[in-house]
Amino acid sequence: MREGLQIKVWDSKELPADWFKRQKADEKAVLEVETSVKAIVNQVKADGDGALVELAMKFDKAELNVRGLRVKPAEIKEAYNKAPPEQVFALKFMKEKVNAYQKQLLTQTDIKTAGDGICVQTVLRPIESVGCYVPGGQAAYPSTLVMTAVPAKVAGVKRIVACSPSDDKGKVNPLVLVAADICGVDEVYRVGGAQAIAALAYGTKTIEPVRKIVGPGSKYVTAAKMLVSNDVAIDMPAGPSEVLVLADECADSRLIAFDMVSQAEHGGDSVAGLITTSEKVALKVQDYLTKITATAERGEKVSESLNKFGFIIICSTMDEAIGLVNQFAAEHLEVMTAQPREVAEKLTAGLILLGPYSPVALSDYGSGTNHVLPTGGFAQSFSGLSALDFMRRVSIVESTKVGLERVKDSIKVMTEAENLPNHYKAIKARFER
């Protein structure tokens, strides 16, 4: 291993066996988070609104009162005066892009088969209510509100609730409020962290519980979502953000470095990595990272992230690189190779971006795709958020007498095999007088 100023460069042959754990916190640290979150959830369940006010002061240094937990329409209206017009326009543009993509997605889900007298159809029904968590604290994320609320709106959810932490003066970011208005959110609460997840799951006097909770957040928010998932549905484990770049000798090292820095600025626990078949590209990326971070805005957070969770791995072959990429199963995967589309067919990730003109920032703000994605390797079993996550699939079956008669002998065999004789008697009764 060669140590760089900002990031480690590994030869794949020297790679530790547990590298894919992306330097996750040790078991003791994980247990501490889970213990803390469990205490927060129990406090909210026991004390409701009072707990939300107390915890807002404890974690956000925000002075709130019970009557002011819900953001009033006048405050949302006033937010437009504090948001630059170009930012409002950009939010509306993003909303329309996401809206169009999600509507198109739903057109692909009408499934109906008919034959031999039996008709089977799958229909979609919206979930009754959802809670959208919008992170705050180090930075505001109005785009996350768009990504969570718009698919819910497209799905036809009747009640959409948003929770986002306030600043120390008890104010929610104006652009988040503008986004809530643009996207048709029904209720907005100035509540953040694990306590917001608990309130959405179990309810308080002010906040009615929801059927499903969606949205990314800190390790505490993610732990809270996992904890309450026994009682309310959640979208996925969506914790600290990740980008992984897969590159060969054709890749532009400068662009790779900029993309890694852009991801690292999310916070000190963000993950940015490069897996490449080119030592030249690896070392040039390392040099660019050092130069870019030296003058980057939010440079302290970028450096913290890269030093803790950044990595560059050099592989001998593309097949070896692909194997490591799939083992990591990143939230965002950029493919910068000579034949990116061909390589992409072999890859696993939450979202795959092909070529030098498809950075993560495009998918975050301009492509219409959703940036609420599985992290921590969960891309191996979860998909990114979409309108389908706000739907329930219901199958409708209708058979004629002829159709049922054609399959009754096969049904009889299976009822006998599973020792459920009354199942077949229910079939047989329909052909007896």
Give the assembly state of these chains.
single chain
The count of strands amounts to: 15
Helix proportion range: 40-55%
CATH superfamily of the largest domain: Nitrogenase molybdenum iron protein domain
Strands side by side in the biggest sheet = 1-2-12-11-10-13-14
For the record, the CATH architecture of the largest domain stands as 3-Layer(aba) Sandwich
Count structural domains: 3
- Give the helix/strand class: alpha/beta
- Indicate the CATH class of the largest domain: Alpha Beta
Q: What's the average pLDDT?
A: 92
Give an overview in words.
- By secondary structure, the chain is α/β, with parallel strands linked by helices.
- It has three domains: 2-27 and 240-380, Nitrogenase molybdenum iron protein domain (Rossmann fold, 3-Layer(aba) Sandwich); 48-234, Rossmann fold, CATH 3.40.50; 400-431, no CATH class.
- Helix content is 45%, strand content 17%.
- The chain is built from 16 helices and 15 strands.
- The protein has helices at 27-47, 49-60, 73-82, 85-106, 142-155, 174-182, 193-202, 219-228, 253-264, 279-295, 299-309, 318-328, 340-344, 360-365, 401-417, 421-428, and strands at residues 2-3, 8-11, 111-115, 118-126, 129-133, 159-163, 187-189, 212-214, 233-234, 242-247, 271-276, 310-314, 332-336, 351-354, 391-399.
- The strands form three sheets. The chain has a seven-stranded mixed beta sheet with strand order 1-2-12-11-10-13-14, sandwiched between helices.
- Helix 15 (401-417) packs antiparallel against helix 16 (421-428).
- The chain is globular and about 85 Å long.
- The N and C termini lie far apart (82 Å).
- The model is unreliable at 1-5 (pLDDT under 50).
